[in-house]
Amino acid sequence: MRAMVIDKSDSGQQASLCDFNEAELMEGDVTVRVSHSCLNYKDGLALTGKAPVVRRFPMIPGIDFAGVVETSAHDGYKPGDAVLLNGWGTGETHLGGYAELSRVKGDWLVPLPAGLTAAQAMAIGTAGYTAMLSLMAIERHGLTPDAGPAVVTGAAGGVGSVAIALLHRAGWRVIASTGRMQESEYLTSLGADEIIDRATLSGAPKPLAKERWAAAVDSVGSTTLANVLSMTRSGGAVAACGLAGGMDLPGSVAPFILRGVALLGIESVMAPKPRRVEAWGRLARELDLTKLDAMTRTIGLADVAEAAAEIIAGRVRGRIVVKIGG
């Protein structure tokens, strides 16, 4: 089978498209014929070696995939079932989705929701799924659009693009923060009501700044997250789901103890299946598929390495689907 494979030698890490022996697939009770995957920021880190995402070599990257069950020893799935997968260490410790076949634990899979094709599911991918988990966390905290606007950082990226569309659909007034002001028309088309330059959030954060928003979806981290927290209204909440700007948090406890702001950590890799099923069901019902199409482009498996360098450099707008086969 054809697969993108990352290997490591004395000269460093290399990624190449090659033939991979199906017999070398890892243990699992379901084998899936993969039709589509996608490119997330974490996939970019894995392929470029910019962060130690890959934990074993050789590794087939790709933290997401969608396809059709080929063989199954799992009670929940039979040959012909349409399924998808996000996370669970695929592309990191378990051979991932950039291959024509993947063998995984059936408990990791989610049935493809009615109303979505495999390509649309991968246009959503971990980025869009994470955006929905963020919205769900904000809602569980008790916040509604009446509380005030919501800000989305890294707005032109995958998480940000889907988050804008979802928040807009849910009735929020959306403020989009981006370092690519030339994408303002694109962000407005997704549902952003106001565009701000990321420089607004990149300066040295104050312990408390002027209150600007009630909720936030942040995929950047570091100084940006610290500034977002300092500008969040009393009783507000910030869903932290990414680290494109760094893992540090150079802020203050002031937003937490003086305004009661909540920092909501969003963990998508090992999220329990009921939450996954809920998130994917809502995505199928609530995400405007015309907006999803507008934020998506499709590439082949041979183009993944080049696209990975683009996403790490911050040059990718929206989502990239990787067509594997079928």
Topology, pairings included?
Layout (H helix, E strand, L loop, with lengths): L1 E8 L2 E8 L10 E10 L1 H8 L15 E9 L9 E5 L14 E4 L5 E2 L6 H23 L9 E3 L5 H12 L4 E5 L5 H7 L3 E4 L15 E6 L3 H9 L1 E9 L13 H5 L3 E4 L7 H14 L2 H6 L1 E5 L3 H9 L6 E5 L3
Helix pairs in contact: 1-9, 2-3, 2-7
In short:
This protein is α/β, with parallel strands linked by helices and 326 residues long. The protein has helices at 41-48, 118-140, 158-169, 184-190, 222-230, 254-258, 273-286, 289-294, 304-312, and strands at 2-9, 12-19, 30-39, 64-72, 82-86, 101-104, 110-111, 150-152, 174-178, 194-197, 213-218, 232-240, 262-265, 296-300, 319-323.
CATH class of the largest domain: Alpha Beta
Using DSSP, what is the number of strands?
15
Q: Outline the biggest β-sheet.
A: 7 strands, mixed
Specify the number of helices. Answer: 9
CATH superfamily of the largest domain: Medium-chain alcohol dehydrogenases, catalytic domain
Identify the overall geometry.
globular
Q: Which CATH architecture of the largest domain would you pick? A: Alpha-Beta Complex
Oligomer status: single chain
Distance between the ends: 13 Å
Q: Uncertain spans, ≥5 residues at pLDDT below 50? A: none
Strand content: 25-35%
Share of helix, binned: 25-40%
What does this structure look like?
This protein is of the alpha/beta class and 326 residues long. It has 2 domains: 2-112 and 295-323, Quinone Oxidoreductase, Chain A, domain 1; 126-265, 3-Layer(aba) Sandwich (Rossmann fold). 29% of the residues lie in helices and 27% in strands. The strands form 3 sheets. Strands 3, 4, 5, 6, 7, 14 and 15 form a 7-stranded mixed beta sheet that branches. Strands 10-9-8-11-12-13 form a 6-stranded parallel beta sheet, with helices on both faces. A two-stranded antiparallel sheet has the order 1-2. α9 (304-312) links the parallel β14 and β15 (319-323). α1 (41-48) crosses α9 and α2 (118-140) crosses α3. The protein is globular, with a radius of gyration of 19 Å. The two termini are 13 Å apart. The mean pLDDT is 96.
